[in-house]
């Protein structure tokens, strides 16, 4: 289908991810950005369930805990991941930033409480003048076996 100046629409590349062979393109194209394998993929032959996510303020840290249960028929290892998001920072912050992780081993039907202590230093960032800033008040925490499948809770500091 002809478009502006007789060019075919297929020649006009959108921005997104690297691609294209033309000298005059942006070298980007729109494409899915999900990873082929998530962090921790393939470490066991069993399944896990997450429950009872808790977050509490400490004086100089945030304490996050969750219960992980092996729901499969085999023993396995799981990487329990804790992500955070600063919801009220003055600058745009990552949607899910890895804050901590632990590798645990569980027998069939065994469950463990996994706890993370996120120090205050991980709640901030450096501004344009290289000053360390903690300006967020609301933080969202995620705990799960991957960034795509996790429990979430919020805390006000």
Main features:
157 residues, single chain, Immunoglobulin-like, mainly beta, 4-stranded antiparallel beta sheet, 0% helix, disordered N terminus, 3-stranded antiparallel beta sheet
Q: How many beta strands in the DSSP annotation?
A: 11
Radius of gyration using CA atoms only: 21 Å
The major β-sheet equals:
4 strands, antiparallel
What is the second-level CATH architecture of the domain at 48-156? Sandwich
CATH superfamily of the domain at 48-156, by name, is Immunoglobulins
Count up the helices.
Answer: 0
Identify the quaternary structure here. Answer: single chain
Helicity range: under 10%
Instruction: Report low-confidence residues grouped into runs of 5 or more.
Output: 1-17
Q: Helix-strand pattern, N to C? A: EEEEEEEEEEE
Strand fraction: over 45%
Name of the top-level CATH class of the domain at 48-156: Mainly Beta
Distance linking N and C termini: 56 Å
What's the arrangement of strands in the largest beta sheet?
Answer: 6-5-10-11
CATH level-3 fold name of the domain at 48-156: Immunoglobulin-like
- Briefly note the structural class of the backbone: mainly beta
Explained architecture:
The structure is a single chain. Strand 3 and strand 4 (61-70) form a beta hairpin. The strands form 4 sheets. Strands 6-5-10-11 form a 4-stranded antiparallel β-sheet, with no helix packed on it. A 3-stranded antiparallel β-sheet has the order 3-4-7, with no helix packed on it. It has a two-stranded antiparallel sheet with strand order 1-2. It is mainly β. Mean pLDDT is 83; it is low at 1-17. It has strands at 17-18, 28-29, 48-57, 61-70, 76-86, 97-106, 111-119, 125-126, 132-133, 138-144, 150-156. The protein has a domain at 48-156: Immunoglobulin-like (Sandwich).
